[in-house]
Design goal:
220 residues; Cell_Envelope_Assoc; alpha/beta; 8 helices
């Protein structure tokens, strides 16, 4: 298998950076009732969730996620289970973690986590959604549609674009995911899965340029 590149090509940098910046909600962190770690291929989500817990940002964590084609090889027992194990290694106490191991998409993450907390009699007025950096906007729009009464903040491990690509180990994968998430902002709102979000002209142009460059693996 050829070695995957972690170097962002200069001719793509401006467009990739534009999408990267758009998906960051730039929310200011403040304490919340629960931190919800959204399952993915990125173990950094669990790392940052644990860091926020230790910083006193929330007293309870829910890790949500089953498997997807992009994660089953890395997390064969399920995203939430592997996230929990990683958080335990980072010193989060077992009684501060709940897992929701069935979610297969962001909508499931929200609805199944909400149902889990309600089944435990845990009242939630505010939540921090921790995700991959480029999933923030999609997580926000989905939560506002499916759990509108909760005060939601989005957060991700604070890495610059190049450092994030290095942490994932595959620049093409990151670009494909960025392009796919950009498409989903519009499509999921049209399908009633999320609230509408304005997409600036420069974001649309960057998206179109990257699609034309062949980054279509994660398009619907």
């Amino acid at each position: 298998m050829p070695e995957r590149s972690t170097t962002l090509p200069d001719d793509l940098r401006a467009d990739v950076q534009t999408l990267w910046d758009y998906h960051d909600m730039h929310h200011e962190l403040r304490p919340a009732d629960v931190g919800i770690g959204l399952g993915s291929h990125d173990l950094g989500v669990a790392t940052f969730t644990a860091e926020l817990f230790h910083a006193g940002m929330f007293p309870l964590i829910v890790f949500s996620g089953a498997n997807a084609p992009t994660t089953i090889e890395r997390f064969p027992r399920g995203e939430a289970i592997h996230y929990r194990e990683h958080a335990l290694e980072l010193g989060v106490p077992d009684d501060a973690i709940l897992i929701e191991p069935e979610a297969r998409n962001t909508g499931d993450n929200i609805t199944l986590t909400r149902a889990l907390l309600e089944s435990r009699g845990i009242e939630v007025r505010s939540a921090i959604l921790i995700s991959r950096p480029y999933q923030q906007r999609r997580a926000f729009t989905t939560c506002k549609k499916l759990w509108p009464e909760v005060d939601v903040i989005c957060a991700s491990r604070p890495l610059p674009l190049d450092e994030y690509i290095e942490s994932i180990g595959d620049v093409d994968r990151v670009i494909n995911m960025l392009v796919g998430d950009t498409q989903r902002i519009t499509v999921y709102a049209e399908r009633g899965f999320a609230i509408h979000q304005a997409i600036p002209i420069d974001v649309t142009k960057a998206y179109e340029n990257l699609v034309q460059s062949g980054f279509t693996q994660r398009l619907l």
